[in-house]
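Budget justification note: compute hours in this period were largely spent on complex prediction jobs such as the one shown. Inputs:
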Amino acid sequence: MMPSIRLEKVGFRYDRSWVLKGVSLDAERGAFLGILGPNGSGKTTLLNLIDGVIAPREGRVLLEGTDAASLERNELARMVAVVPQDSPLIFSFTVQEIVLMGRAPHLGRWRFEGKRDFEIARDVMERTGTLPLAGRSMSELSGGERQRVLIARALAQEPRILLLDEPTSNLDIRHQSTFFSLVSELNRTQGLTVIAVSHDINLASLYCRRIVLLKEGAVYGEGTPEDIITEESILDVFGAPVRVDRHPQTGRPRITPICNTPPERGSRFNAGAAPQL
Amino acid sequence: MEDTLHKIVTPARLIRVTLLFSLAFLLVAFIAVLVGPSEIAPLEVLRSLFRDRHAAETAASDTERMILFSIRIPRVLFAGIVGAALSTAGVVYQALLRNPLADPYILGVSGGASAGAVAGILLGASTVPFGTPLLAFAGALAATFLVFGTARKNASLSSNTLILAGVIVNAFTTALVFFFLSISSSNEVHNVVFWIMGDLGIASGKDIGIIALVLLGTFILIYAHGRSLNLLVVGEETALRLGVSVESTKKILLVAASILTAAAVSLCGTIGFVGLIIPHMMRMLLGADHRLLLPASLLFGGAFLIAADTLARVLLAPTELPVGVVTAFCGAPFFIYLLRRRA
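Corresponding output:
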């Protein structure tokens, strides 16, 4: 089967130093891929290459077998949707206006949103819990609410590929799991290909079927969460000592950071061992 | 679904709002035509408009007709078109530069036009047909190219660099204006001041025709990008990801808005405030969707400048004020009121 996304030895640099170099990657239709890596390892650049915001300096990005560079912006936007990180709005649109913008790639220059567009907008707002916010101005919302609106907008595009850039960074624990359950469901039932960039290793481990670990612009490792999320690889890539055990419910790997500084005297964990001064 | 949606832009709403604003525009224009230093009876105006021109009239109504058709109506028409042009350009600049403080003059258009026009006035270009406007237009284009050239990097235009380049070019051209003024000993200073503050009393039929054509052409072009403007306001990356060819769209719209502004400024000087406040007023009233914002600003901006120009004509009659003084006097307090009410 033709892969949904294929990166062939992709490289990108802004000026002299390469941000990404020789990255090859395949994601089948219906894949749920997590991209992990420290700050500056090229995670967001990788996403931007896939959705064509930037063009690779080397190699090719193929979307369903077609070179992304040869696609019209509209075609690309009907295929790939992005949930970006939140950015402030200059002039305030209402929530429903923002969600309906997701229909833009499906409409021509002069066509107004029709019945079907409103139905889709309503459906995705219902599923993301943003329907009660429909008439509110984006600038009145909390960070978490805005993020859910951006998710709704991406879903309104009816994409076949969904890219998530730190999608749950502003969400509380309930909305985090609601969001990932929704994306997982679309991934399973509709064959939506999902690629998520995240700092949250545990969340990625829980929901992603495969993980790509990036280090200094190159692929350090790729595989199932069990293969990739180990104490050695996290120490090697992030430089952070962690313990890895199993998630009590799913059995997926779960990391716990190891404290560098000893716990404070008097805390109940070492009260008995604290030396008396 | 539609009834659960709040104030979304639909074709029906677009038509409703456009009709309403057109009526308001016509009403303001009609009143403005009646008002002036010499009284014209409303009924006489109506009669002049509807009655056969060849019908026998008294000498008095001939004078009135002359005032009406050669002075009042052209001036009101000109004010309406210039106000519409500046408001439209203001909407586009604020969206493209993603800056609520942007106005049509932010990218050096007005500075360049002023330098060209002042040089023209002092050198006596006003004796040549279209002398001053042509020099002003050339100055506006030169300044705009200078700004675009400065801000251009890797074939893309960054909003912040554009604004900075505009500030610098405007500072430079202001210096040029003062330089021209300080070396001139002519009596043209009054004309220069009127030009800089904006003067709608100098329009000929040809001027009106030119600016009307420019407005028609650029407005259609800009309106065709209404949805793209919405997406660009949200962010350039967002626009790209939702299918807009960002760089080419930005260039087309910046050039269209700059030509529109240059045409208006070179014919009537730099009338301030209209292009800044009308887009904000319309946004507060109707929301941020450009498919509605553009026609509403066009019509309301036109009506606003007609009203301001009428005040400029009658407030200290027979002395006439520069219309820019009136737009600032009326516009600033109203804008403060809107901001406060919203806060």
